[in-house]
Amino acid sequence: xxxxxxxxxxxxxxxxxxxxxxxxxxxxxxxxxxxxxxxxxxxxxxxxxxxxxxxxxxxxxxxxxxxxxxxxxxxxxxxxxxxxxxxxxxxxxxxxxxxxxxxxxxxxxxxxxxxxxxxxxxxxxxxxxxxxxxxxxxxxxxxxxxxxxxxxxxxxxxxxxxxxxxxxxxxxxxxxxxxxxxxxxxxxxxxxxxxxxxxxxxxxxxxxxxxxxxxxxxxxxxxxxxxxxxx
Length: 231
Ligand SMILES: [Ca+2]
Ligand SMILES: [Ca+2]
Prior knowledge:
This protein is mainly alpha-helical. Helices cover 64% and strands 3% of the residues.
């Protein structure tokens, strides 16, 4: 689980979210001249998927309007089309894990960001997820993580799904992790997770079982709290 959270930190760095210092600078930046403004508006109308009103996003997320503006600017720089597809996620992750194969993990992560399963992550999807991961309550963060593990989105995590995710994380880390992992390491990892999480031993982990067992585990809680210090 720590690995899952750690990789989000990497993604955050890549997306160049604003630090407090940058926001301060933005406050005092000279006003845009008229031609910049027109260019911006032109861009807004040509982008195929414009964000919903920032006011609306402000009520739906834990970001201020100013933060949303800065995030949108960064998002547009990285993704001029206004949407991110699965390949972009794969590219980002392969940069951070050059010795491994990040494609499966990026695939699962993309599906968690793409809440509507539309095949692309729009700015709204992106900031909604970021808002949960950075500023959500512990429950919201755990729900998000549960959804990531619930690959077929049927509301339960079964052993195969957990195996797929854990394998994807091991693949992403690559063969050069130290100490060298045994081939059956993912399987042992999953057995351990399941023993802890499947409280009633019915073969699936429900959201309640997931939240309860994560809150019992200090390691998981510590990795979740890391998010709170990022912004
Ligand atoms: Ca499932
Ligand atoms: Ca169960």
